[in-house]
């Protein structure tokens, strides 16, 4: 409460009970008496007397009468909307700008709502979802890690020793390539398939897969059985029941798989997406593998019993860790035993959290909770921009509505009815905008799906859609109209007559603050767009340690069998081909990988293991990839001793402590190799992660792809030549190829999408802000037209008038830049922390964003300013 004023609550109470026709006059008298008493008696006594006068005025004649006469509510509301329609028709530009801004803002919010709803709906369809979990490892040490793969024996031990676990099932992609070959038993032609996995029979029960043909408990019970999705069953067998039919995978005729069942296609809102589930029953990938604790190759799912506590199950798993995993590590002489006991924990992840929790290492496709929060925040900001336009334009037009309000009050209209009138107008704007927004969403949805990588649809068949839209339009309308309605309805007739409102309408701190908010938001989005695109350019053009251009990758080469060398030699005869290598270990995400612990020879019982990749390649691999050998030499096809040689990267040499690595021997406790060379570090995953230790050896077993280095500028002709050679060797298998630079770019699809989304939202935010600024400037210039004319008559040049009219708006944009730039810098630096390699956020980005915002503001207000400055003064001055 300000010093010198009576108690606010007493004033508010008086306005509440006193009749509107007496309130202003009586309150004015009471305030005059209060001022005199305060001057003579002091503030405390003046306050007491003011309160006493308020209480004394509680008289029957002064109390507001609550009408008992029935009111024609429908007629009154109908009149509100009739007046609103007339005002909309009278001010066409204002109406178009308000509805346009509202519609774009609402359409953006609807699209983002559909996206967020889709992301939050993943894996919510399971009846027993509260009891379904995926197991993951959490190493809580200094180098915190989370990963989903578990040893093959873990699930069986848990099932036996922890009674709270009702069902357990494992998945693995061992022996299945990123894209495997599938064919019918009696059809020599192979097809490429990607969604394949080995799994325990219980997985069908845990994931609640509806069966089209067969029994979920028996479909994968027998060895070498496979379950197909409905779409793949139709593709391979038509509409018939395929149970008992045979499929061949990766052309392994010695291991035919019998169809044991057909399941419904997995929901698009499931992280679990497989078309072929091959049985793990009786399967061992090497002798003793199923009881081994050496390797982390399996993803494990559990269904707990009713009432089981997941935290209690996690605690019990620690005893399994100490008994089996630690026991195995102790037996092998590992130096990591104490760290494992101290830091290694097992966690149960609810199935509903898998899609959005991408920080746990696994090969699955994931959404992003960061995007959910980011998109949600942007939706709120853009909706606020649209609401601010309405508030700004409504208050700016206050002088135009002042006479209307004054006249209504003079003839007896109460303030609450004026408020209802203005709220009816804002609600009508909102309803019309919602209708247009739905049409915009329908038109924009295909493009948005392409950018976001989703398949969103408007849920027209859902019962809740139209009630939600109606309620949302009413809410948004009332929210946007709340302040203008109270502001406009508070005008006093005496102030309208004196012309005070015209001056006030030109100078509003709140309105200026709203303009600052709009442009600060726009500047933040512009800076975000620049940073994302700069990072994307940096990633795509950074030296990665190999040459990714003009390198053709042919997948499915394992079926070449003994013909692989002949195929390679014929490719080398083509004039368009520079070099050829046969290996499925390609330096982009999604290709073959094998991880092992490495030691210097003789140090496995002493040193901590260095975890690294072991890639099986042919002697031409390094030269085909154009990797740089920085020490030692490359493999030599003509040296038999190179079958026991190894080439490592700089990171492995450093982590193993090899100062002079060439000639030294390293081991993974199974095999030992002599280091013959060191290659420069290269990125083989995306650059969000640091480069890890890696080794290359000449060994069979990785021949799932052929890398063809092209030297011809005629890429189409080169492809045709390679295809001709392929058809000669594999007439029953269509060639499947891609280029390494394309695969490399796909690793950063999420970054590219984020850049596109930022650009779109920045454009929308600027557009909405400019609509408001354009209308606001036109109304402000309209209020100052006589002032402008007088200045012109007195000799002011057009440039001075232009500067006068645009100066205030440019000041607001500069304030917005000062506020928005630091916030954008902080936010984008946080985002860049996700990348091990990142482009610096330079001052040029902020200068560019500021110049764009200022230029847009100048262009927006220039038309109205120049028009006002060029208008003949006599046209304005002759008005009375």
Task: Describe what you observe in this structure.
The protein has 880 residues and is an alpha+beta fold. The protein contains 27 helices and 25 strands. Strands 1, 2, 3, 4, 5, 6, 7, 8, 9, 10, 11, 12, 13 and 14 form a 14-stranded mixed sheet that branches. It has a six-stranded mixed beta barrel with strand order 17-18-23-20-22-21. A hairpin with a 7-residue loop joins strand 10 and strand 11. The longest helix is centred in the middle third of the chain and has 38 residues. About 1% of the residues have low confidence.
Counting DSSP H or I runs of 4 or more residues, the number of helices is: 27
Globally, the shape reads: elongated
User: Which structural category fits the helices and strands?
Assistant: alpha+beta
The average pLDDT score comes to 87
* Terminal Cα span: 42 Å
- Which residues sit in consecutive blocks of at least 5 with pLDDT less than 50? 502-507
Count of DSSP E strands?
25
**Rg result:** 37 Å
Largest sheet properties: 14 strands, mixed
Q: Which range best describes the helical content: under 10%, 10-25%, 25-40%, 40-55%, 55-70% or over 70%?
A: 40-55%
Bin the strand percentage. 5-15%
């Amino acid at each position: 409460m300000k010093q010198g004023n009576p108690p606010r609550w007493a004033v508010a109470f008086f306005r509440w009970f006193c009749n509107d026709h007496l309130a202003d006059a009586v309150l004015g008298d009471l305030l005059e008496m209060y001022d005199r008493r305060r001057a003579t008696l002091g503030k405390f006594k003046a306050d007491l007397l003011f309160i006493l006068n308020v209480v004394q005025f509680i008289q029957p004649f002064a109390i507001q009468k609550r009408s008992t006469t029935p009111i024609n509510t429908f007629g009154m509301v109908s009149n509100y909307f009739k007046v609103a329609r007339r005002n909309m028709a009278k001010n066409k530009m204002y109406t178009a700008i308000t509805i346009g801004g509202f519609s774009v803002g609402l359409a953006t919010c609807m699209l983002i709502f559909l996206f967020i709803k889709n992301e939050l709906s993943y894996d919510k369809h399971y009846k027993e979802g509260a009891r379904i979990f995926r197991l993951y490892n959490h190493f809580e040490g200094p180098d915190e890690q989370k990963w989903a793969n578990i040893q093959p024996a873990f699930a069986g031990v848990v099932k036996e020793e922890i009674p709270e676990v009702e069902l357990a099932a494992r998945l693995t992609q061992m022996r299945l390539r990123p894209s495997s070959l599938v064919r019918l038993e009696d059809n020599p032609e192979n097809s490429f398939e990607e969604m394949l996995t080995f799994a325990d029979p219980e997985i069908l029960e845990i994931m609640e897969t509806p069966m089209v043909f067969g029994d979920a408990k028996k479909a994968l019970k027998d060895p070498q059985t496979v379950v197909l999705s409905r779409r793949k069953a139709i593709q391979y067998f038509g509409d018939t029941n395929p149970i008992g039919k045979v499929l061949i995978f990766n052309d392994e005729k010695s291991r035919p798989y019998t169809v044991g069942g057909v399941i419904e296609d997995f929901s698009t809102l499931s992280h679990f997406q497989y078309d072929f589930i091959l049985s793990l029953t009786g399967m061992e990938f090497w002798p003793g593998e199923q009881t081994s604790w050496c390797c982390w190759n399996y993803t494990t799912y559990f269904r707990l019993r009713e009432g089981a506590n997941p935290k209690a199950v996690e605690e019990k798993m620690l005893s399994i860790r100490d008994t089996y995993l630690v026991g195995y590590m102790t037996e092998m002489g590992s130096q990591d035993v104490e760290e494992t006991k101290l830091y290694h924990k097992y966690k149960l992840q609810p199935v509903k959290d898998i899609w959005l929790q991408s920080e746990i290492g696994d090969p699955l496709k994931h959404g992003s909770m960061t995007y959910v929060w980011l998109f949600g925040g942007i939706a709120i900001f853009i909706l606020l921009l649209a609401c601010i336009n309405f508030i700004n334009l409504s208050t700016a037009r206050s002088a135009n509505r002042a006479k209307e309000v004054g006249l209504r009050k003079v003839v007896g209209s109460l303030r609450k009815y004026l408020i209802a009138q203005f709220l009816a107008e804002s609600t009508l704007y909102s309803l019309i905008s919602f209708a247009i927004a739905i049409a915009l969403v329908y038109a924009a949805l295909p493009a948005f799906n392409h950018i976001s990588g989703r398949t969103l649809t408007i849920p027209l068949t859902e019962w809740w859609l139209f009630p939600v839209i109606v309620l949302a339009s009413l809410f948004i309308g009332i929210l946007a109209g709340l302040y203008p309605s109270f502001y406009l309805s508070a005008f006093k007739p005496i102030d309208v007559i004196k012309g005070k409102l015209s001056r006030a309408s030109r100078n509003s701190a709140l309105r200026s603050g709203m303009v600052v908010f709009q442009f600060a938001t726009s500047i933040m989005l512009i800076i975000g767009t620049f940073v994302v695109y700069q990072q994307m350019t940096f990633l795509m053009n950074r030296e990665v340690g190999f040459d990714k251009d003009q390198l053709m990758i042919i997948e499915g080469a394992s079926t070449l069998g003994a013909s692989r060398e002949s195929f390679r030699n014929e490719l080398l005869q083509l004039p368009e081909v520079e070099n050829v290598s046969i290996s499925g270990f390609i330096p982009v995400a999604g290709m073959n990988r094998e991880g092992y612990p490495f030691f210097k020879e003789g140090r496995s019982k002493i040193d901590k293991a260095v975890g690294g990749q072991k890639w099986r390649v042919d002697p031409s691999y390094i030269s085909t990839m154009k990797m740089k050998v920085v020490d030692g030499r490359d493999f030599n096809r003509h040296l038999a001793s190179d079958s026991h040689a190894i080439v490592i990267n700089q990171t492995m040499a450093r982590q193993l402590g090899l100062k002079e690595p060439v000639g030294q021997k390293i081991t993974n406790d199974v095999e030992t190799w002599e280091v013959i060379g060191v290659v420069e570090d290269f990125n083989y995953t995306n650059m969000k992660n640091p480069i890890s230790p890696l080794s290359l050896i000449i060994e069979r077993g990785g021949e799932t792809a052929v890398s063809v280095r092209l030297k011809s500028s005629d890429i189409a002709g080169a492809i045709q030549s390679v295809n001709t050679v392929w058809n000669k060797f594999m007439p029953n298998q269509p060639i499947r190829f891609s280029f390494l630079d394309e695969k490399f770019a796909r690793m950063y699809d999420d970054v590219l999408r984020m850049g596109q989304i930022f650009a779109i939202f920045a454009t929308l935010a600027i557009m909405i802000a400019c609509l408001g600024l354009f209308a606001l400037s036109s109304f402000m210039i309209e209020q100052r037209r006589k002032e402008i004319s007088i200045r012109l008559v007195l000799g002011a040049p057009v440039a001075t008038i232009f500067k006068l009219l645009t100066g205030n708006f440019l000041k607001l944009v500069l304030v917005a830049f000062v506020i928005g730039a630091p916030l954008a810098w902080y936010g984008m630096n946080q985002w860049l922390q996700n990348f091990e390699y990142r482009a610096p956020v330079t001052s040029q980005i902020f200068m560019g964003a500021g110049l764009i915002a200022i230029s847009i503001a100048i262009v927006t207000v220039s038309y109205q300013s120049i028009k006002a400055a060029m208008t003949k003064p006599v046209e304005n001055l002759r008005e009375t």
